[in-house]
Every structure is written in structure tokens, then in C-alpha cells.
Amino acid sequence: MPKHIEPIQSVKGTRDLLPPETELWQRVEEEARRVFQAYGFREIRTPILEATALFARSVGADTDIVTKEMYTFQDRDEESLTLRPEATASVVRAYIEHRLYHEGGLHKLYYLGPMFRRDRPQKGRYRQFYQMGAEVLGSDHPAIDVETIEMLVLLLERLALQEFTLLLNSVGCPRCRPEYLKVLRRALEEVRANLCADCQRRAVTNPLRVLDCKVEADQPIIERLPRMVDYLCMECRQHLEAVKSGLQDSGVAYQDVPRLVRGLDYYTRTTFEITSGALGAQNAILGGGRYDGLSEMLGGPPAPGFGFAIGEDRLALAVKEAWEKQPIEAPRARRPLAYIAWMGDAALGAAAKLARELRRQNLSIEISYQPNKLKRALGTASKIGARFTVIIGEGELASGRYQVKDMGTGQQDEVEADPGKVAAYLHEKTAKREGSNPATGERT
Ligand SMILES: [Zn+2]
Ligand SMILES: [Zn+2]
User: Fold this and answer.
1) Which residue segment(s) compose the domain that 106 sits in?
2) In terms of Cα–Cα distance, which of 137, 124, 32 is closest to 90?
């Protein structure tokens, strides 16, 4: 008797992305690449594995990410490695390692890929999650902040997301933040006992992170704490004002959120998040800000930077909901252009050759390698949504002409049994169909 074998499941907090969802993701990524490239960003691909020290130094040794959420392990040669929990540190490491700063000027880099954090799994949050992000290295000019945020708003508009809100704040710089932290620490001493356990610890180790706490009972206390904006130095204040007036000039609405800090220690000055109405106010789909000292923290030259990361899992969720509500063209499942139905062993060679030649012209072709009856083959063709079925049986082989059936209209034509002729026929028929589409404004 065969032994029962328990199937293996995917790891908790990870998931498979299946079609048609992958097609939605492809659409989102294509749009992102197009918009990033229009703003002069070029792609960088960094490794998923990095030295653990990279994140301890940049993200911050006392952040939740580094203390609780990283996938860290000793490699066989004892080196401590980590699956990247975010990509900004990696991009800056690469910038320093390859001395990109020698070329001078601005470096605008974007990336797409998986990140790893051992977070509590919940809707739209995964332990292997995906980010699309970009970094501008080499300038602290507020116009960089404005232009990058403007680009993000354009991307969200292109994706037909309508209900989103830009939250804006400044977290100051190494000159003004210590003074604020002193005041904040003092204020926290008085209320500390009433805060959640995490905040009681943060109040000592990393008081800024208290502002970020999501525990309901802490909110009224946090609302009354001193605010960074009231302690900004002259330069930081001017920088923030310049970002705000730049956003107004580009027609980008924002909301001042004085307690907005991000979960990473390297931020300076501008911090921002965009939340989507579709996912609820707590759910940022993207966030970012300025990190003027990060390059130095990682042993590089001064290289002010600004960047963001979009949570692709949550963005895809928001986009899907938005597209369902609006009469816009949702991503169509990729349908094959033609299904090749062959009857009798003698036809198989000709059918395989036709499929090969048509695919070389980038036409999407399906073919079954199981012997079939015509009726059954036509059933398969309509089930998979093929627009045409090419029929090759003994009669077609003898006459040297294939039957091509339009699955939409039912019309059937004879086409010379030559892959080039069949391709030309399919091109002509699809061009006609698209031409009569009112959306293209063309007439045939
Ligand atoms: Zn400052
Ligand atoms: Zn708390």
C-alpha cells in the first residue's frame, strides 16, 4: 500500500502570486518603470543577502526591524548574513562600493524586488513582501523632494488610484534633533508609566519611535507630546517651507502630520507617507524621506539622499479595488491569439511547426500534444479564450490549406498551409478588429 505523503505548504507569511494576479502586478510594474524612467531614474539590482552590520548601522540597532524582524543567520563560514528588510541601505552601500560619487552630479536609481521581515502576518502584509523604490543621491535641494513626490503622485494617478493622502513632516537634522529629543525625553518621563510596554522601553532607548506607536490607548498621550516642528533649526525650517511651497506649485495636496516619523533611524528632514483610502487610514502604501547622513554612517563620503519605497503588495491590493470601482480597462487575462487543433498523427508535425513559427513572431499560441477530436479541440479553444483556432486534419494536409476559425464570429476561412501566410492572415484580422474599436478612434 502506498504511504500517505503529507504535501508541503508555503512558509507562513509568504505566498504564491498566481495568474491573473501576476498580470495585475506586471501592469503596475510596467507603469512604475515608465514613470520612473520619465523622471530620469535608472534601474539598480542589489543582492538579497547582505552583511547584517549594514542594517544595524543604517536602519538602527534599536528599531523593531533590526531587533525583532530580520531574517539573520550565520553562514557556514560564521559570517552573519541577513535577508534584506529594505533596499535603501543596499543602494547606498552599492553607491559607496562602486564609487558612483566620483562621476559627480545626481544619481537617480530605482529598484524592484522582494524584502523580508518577520512581521505578524495580516491583510496585505507578508514576511516576504515586495517593494518598488527609488533613491536620489547627491543633493539636499528641496526641489528633489518635491520632484520625487510629484512623480509618485503621477504614478498613483496613472494607476487610477484616487483616494490617497500625502502626509508630510520634518524630523530635523543632527543639529536640531538632539535638543528636541531632550525635551521629548523629559515629557515622556512624566507619562511613561501610562504607555504601552514597547513605548516604555522606547522612551529610554529611542524616544522618537514612541510617536509612531499604533496602540489605541497611547494615542491621547502621544497627541500632547512636544512636536519636532516647533524645534527645527533655521535651515530645517527653511527646507520644510521650500518643500511645502514646491508641492503647492506642482499642485500636490499634502497634510501636515507633526508626529509622522518613519520606522528607520536614518531619516533627516523631510519624511512622508501616502495612505490609500481603499486600505484604511493606518495603511501607508508608500513612504520615504530624506537621509542626508546615511552615506557617512556607512563609511562613504557626504552624499545627501532622498528616496521612497512602495509596498507593492498593498499597492496592488489598492489598485485592484480601485479598478473594480471604476469603468476603466481592468487588466485582461492574457488570452492566446490562436489555438492549433490537429487531428491524426500525420498532422502533428505540421501543427508543431506552425506553433513554433508563429511564436517566433511573438504571437501567443496554444497547442495540445494530446490527440484530439475536432469538437473537443474547439471546446478547449473557447475554454482558454483563444481568438482563433487553426484546424489541421488529414483533409487540410492533402489540400495544402488550413481552416482558420474566428472564435468570436464563427466565420471560417481557408488559408494557405504556410506559417508566414497564417501569420499574415492573423495579423490582418486582428488589425481589422482593433481598427474598428471605437477606443482607438480608427476606422477600417
Ligand atoms: Zn535642523
Ligand atoms: Zn505605545
Assistant:
1) 21-176+232-325
2) 137
Sheet strands (E) in 164-315: 164-170, 255-256, 268-276, 284-290, 305-311
Nearest partner of 101 among 302, 308, 306, judged by Cα: 302
3-class secondary structure, 125: strand
Q: Which of the 8 DSSP states describes residue 67?
A: I
The answer to whether 415 touches 394, Cβ cutoff 8 Å, is no
Helix, coil or strand: residue 298: coil
Residue type, 402: Y
- Ion ligand 1: residues, CB within 5 A, are 172-173, 175-176, 233, 236
Ligand 2 is a single-atom ion; what residues have CB below 5 A from it?
196, 199, 213, 215, 218
pTM of the predicted model as reported, rounded to 2 decimal places? 0.85
Spatial CA neighbour of 49 closest among 70, 77, 78 = 70
CA dihedral for 329, 334, 340, 341, sign (positive or negative): negative
Same domain (yes/no): 168, 272: yes
User: pLDDT by residue (tens digit) across 172-224?
Assistant: 999 999 999 999 999 999 999 999 999 999 898 889 889 988 899 999 999 99
Q: How far is the CA of 200 from the centre of ligand 1 (A)?
A: 27
CATH of the domain at 137: 3.30.930.10
In a domain, 273, yes or no: yes
User: Ligand 2 centre and the CA of 284: distance in Å?
Assistant: 19
Does 204 map to a domain? no
Q: Specify the residue for cell string 517593494.
A: 131
